[in-house]
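**Reference record**
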Amino acid sequence: MSSFDEKVALRSFQEISKLLSSTMELPEILNYILEEITRVLGLKGGTIRLVSPKTNTLEWMASVGVSRKYVEKGAVDLDKSVAEAMTGTPVLVLDAGNDPRMQYPKQAREEGIASMLTIPMKARGGKVIGVMRLVTSEPRQFTMDEVDFACAVGELGAQAITNARMFEELTKELKYFKGMVDVAKFW
């Protein structure tokens, strides 16, 4: 059983919030988020995967405390892997190695994953753009405070992802318009 420390969680949340305005790259921010949440909640590790509408899968973005083999186990299908998280609700799987909602229960057992808490990462407007999966090596029932903290951190992660996507789009538009100005100079 965990002992959730609200002061430690608040300090961690504040540090993660500061990163959103930093110059760190998105993968670094997401890895830091996972490192912090696993430290604060005393977890084995976690992953962050983003929704790919083209393939209807969750694509890997970051991970901490799980093996490369586990991360690369195969495509994570939205419809086969704890699908209810895509509705915006956190999902707890107490026995990851035997739960029918798990797409890869055998790989979870091999990785030593007992329980998994899947946190939807919601962008503005509540649209789920990805999931943060938090895993334990022992069966664990998370407290409401822990779930609330994980959801708040998940929203910060979603904000970082949204900001990075907007920055990338603006950069592309800026390059396009600079190209147009360069072409116009020759006329």
About this structure: Residues 6-185 form a domain with the Beta-Lactamase fold (CATH 3.30.450.40).
